[in-house]
């Protein structure tokens, strides 16, 4: 006769939300193995650094005044290239690639048929994206500072070796830049979840980035999250000499955090009730 | 004898996509330890029903019960006891077979040793460390089944599991499912649009047509249904002439070909009577036999009859 137990068995319990999130995260990290998203994260920072490195290697004397600390000029020059165009595009591409792992495998129906809530799936992918974004910026910073030290060795006439590495200033700049990308990240995340394609959200993200750069002089540009990385950089660059950049957030950064919260909340509600037909 | 309560039960289940009705008053009844073949032509509502059973599409509270519990209320713990393969398996091509299983194992929070166990069960241990993009269609399908078997589920829900498989693949899949049911006591609910694929293993059958259940019961009950549709086939020279010779009560006789006549089977006496009548009228009788319709024909008859 059948031995199927119909009464609630000991396992008849919903796993705690934290447990669900931990499981989803563990699976998501495994899925990143050998993906272009992972390579993009680790290697993309090298590109803007290489450009600035070459400029300083060949033309450094023209860019620096004699006796000047080369570090701030070097860092800001590279950060400018990275922030203006590359960083928003990086976030757009990264989000597309991470979500494409699921979209390409047509795996949503499989994932949602597992005993893990949609909230955990949503939260886990968001954490992966935020983690990769942070990792990419960290990798960029390490390569950037490393390249400065290398210039000190290869071109002693630029005097990198004679000045301390401005760690505190770099970390502060990193903080502002990271916050500045969160609005883009949320919008691209929800768009990729919604369209379930790679091309559409990436095309939209590229269009939005270019539009934001064109509108930089608009009085309401603070409200456009795709412009926030550049706005944050402009603010950092405008700090008067002798003053240090502090951790306090500017209006544009607060607004981008607002976008981040609002878009994620709306996106979650939309996706929570989406039919997997 | 007490009938065991069903493992899967839907009560008056209806579902629409917008204004387009897909399912209408479906009362599914899947007994424990059965292999339930869920049959119907493409677009009849099989996939929609299975997706509702997995919580992928919303069902009104109280309309779907798994293991005697309401799905809408206890979705996650119930899904913990269900393994599913919906159409093509969801596989990550950039990972190998082992890593694919591992991703689902982690997601479900199952013990580590399960990964190797299910790979052995579906016969993929030797290929576990090859990238999945190099897998054949049959191997992909078996890997999908391995994902479904990971939690050692009491209930397996498989949507067209033999889709795209070659005859050998179909035979292997059938043997594996039979083993799971007979040796491990699993309940298997699988859909197909071909009865021939499942008639040799299913214990129960549900036939869905245009969103309504046209038949539900054991395979024996389905066979019994068809016994009323057996026919006598007569091979002679001139079928038309023979038909005119027969008494009026055999008026339903149909001429299938110049020398072939068919009429509804009634009894052994009817057969003897027909033979005697035709021979005494001087007609040659090359063959006289009773033909049972195949399950295939019964299935077609069921799906045609309700397709109005």
TrEMBL record, chain A:
Name of the protein this chain belongs to: Uncharacterized protein
Domain of life: Bacteria
Record organism: Hymenobacter busanensis
UniProtKB/TrEMBL annotation, chain B:
GO terms assigned for molecular function: ATP binding; ATP hydrolysis activity
Family annotation (SMART domains): AAA
One Pfam family recorded for the sequence: ABC_tran
InterPro entries reported in the protein's UniProt record: AAA+_ATPase, ABC_transporter-like_ATP-bd, ABC_transporter-like_CS, P-loop_NTPase
Source organism superkingdom: Bacteria
UniProt keyword terms in alphabetical order: ATP-binding, Nucleotide-binding, Transport
Stretches that traverse the bilayer: none
Ribonucleoprotein in keyword set: no
Family stated for the protein in its record: Belongs to the ABC transporter superfamily.
Protein name: ATP-binding cassette domain-containing protein
Organism of origin: Hymenobacter busanensis
Organism placement in taxonomy: Bacteria, Pseudomonadati, Bacteroidota, Cytophagia, Cytophagales
């Amino acid at each position: 006769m059948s031995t199927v137990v119909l009464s609630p068995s000991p396992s008849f319990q919903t796993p705690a939300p934290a447990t669900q999130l931990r499981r989803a995260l563990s699976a998501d990290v495994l899925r990143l193995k050998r993906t272009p998203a992972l390579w993009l994260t680790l290697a993309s920072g090298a590109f803007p650094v290489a450009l600035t490195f070459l400029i300083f290697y060949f033309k450094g004397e023209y860019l620096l005044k004699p006796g000047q600390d080369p570090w701030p000029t070097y860092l800001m020059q590279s950060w400018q290239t990275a922030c203006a165009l590359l960083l928003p595009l990086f976030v757009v591409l990264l989000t597309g690639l991470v979500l494409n792992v699921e979209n390409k495998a047509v795996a949503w129906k499989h994932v949602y048929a597992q005993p893990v809530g949609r909230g955990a799936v949503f939260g886990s992918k968001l954490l992966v994206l935020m983690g990769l974004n942070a990792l990419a910026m960290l990798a960029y910073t390490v390569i950037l500072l490393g390249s400065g030290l290398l210039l000190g060795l290869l071109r002693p006439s630029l005097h990198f070796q004679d000045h301390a590495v401005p760690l505190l200033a770099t970390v502060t700049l990193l903080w502002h830049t990271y916050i500045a990308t969160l609005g883009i990240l949320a919008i691209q995340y929800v768009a990729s979840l919604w369209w379930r394609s790679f091309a559409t959200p990436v095309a939209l993200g590229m269009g939005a980035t270019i539009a934001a750069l064109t509108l930089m002089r608009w009085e309401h540009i603070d409200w456009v999250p795709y412009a926030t990385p550049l706005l944050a950089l402009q603010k950092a660059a405008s700090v008067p000499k002798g003053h240090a950049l502090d951790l306090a957030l500017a209006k544009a950064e607060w607004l981008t955090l607002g976008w981040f919260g609002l878009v994620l909340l709306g996106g979650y509600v939309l996706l929570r009730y989406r039919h997997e037909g | 004898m007490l009938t065991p309560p069903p493992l899967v039960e839907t009560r008056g289940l209806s579902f629409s996509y917008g204004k387009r009705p897909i399912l209408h008053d479906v009362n599914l009844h899947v007994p424990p330890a059965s292999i339930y073949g869920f049959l119907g032509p493409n677009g009849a509502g099989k996939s929609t029903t299975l997706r509702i059973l997995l919580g992928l599409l919303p069902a009104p509270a109280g309309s779907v019960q798994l293991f005697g519990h309401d799905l809408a209320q206890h979705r996650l713990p119930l899904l913990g006891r269900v393994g599913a393969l919906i159409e093509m398996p969801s596989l990550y091509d950039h990972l190998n077979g082992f890593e694919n299983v591992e991703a689902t194992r982690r997601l479900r929070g199952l013990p580590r040793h399960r990964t190797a166990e299910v790979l052995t069960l579906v016969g993929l241990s030797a290929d576990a460390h090859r990238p999945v993009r190099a897998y054949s269609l049959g191997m992909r399908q078996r890997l999908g089944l391995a994902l479904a078997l990971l939690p050692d589920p009491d209930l397996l829900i498989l949507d067209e599991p033999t889709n795209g498989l070659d005859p050998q693949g179909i035979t292997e899949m059938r043997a594996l499912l039979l083993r799971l049911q007979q040796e491990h006591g699993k309940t298997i609910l699988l859909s197909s649009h071909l009865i021939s694929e499942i008639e040799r293993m299913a214990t129960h059958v549900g036939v869905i047509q245009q969103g309504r259940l046209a038949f539900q019961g054991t395979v024996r009950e389905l066979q019994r249904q068809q016994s009323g549709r057996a026919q006598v086939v007569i091979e002679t020279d001139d079928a038309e002439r023979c038909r005119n010779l027969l008494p009026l009560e055999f008026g339903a006789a149909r001429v299938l070909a110049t020398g072939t006549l068919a009429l509804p089977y009634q009894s052994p006496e009817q057969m003897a009577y027909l033979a005697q009548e035709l021979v005494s009228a001087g007609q040659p009788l090359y063959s006289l036999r009773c033909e049972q319709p195949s399950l295939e024909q019964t299935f077609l008859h069921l799906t045609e009859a309700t397709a109005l």
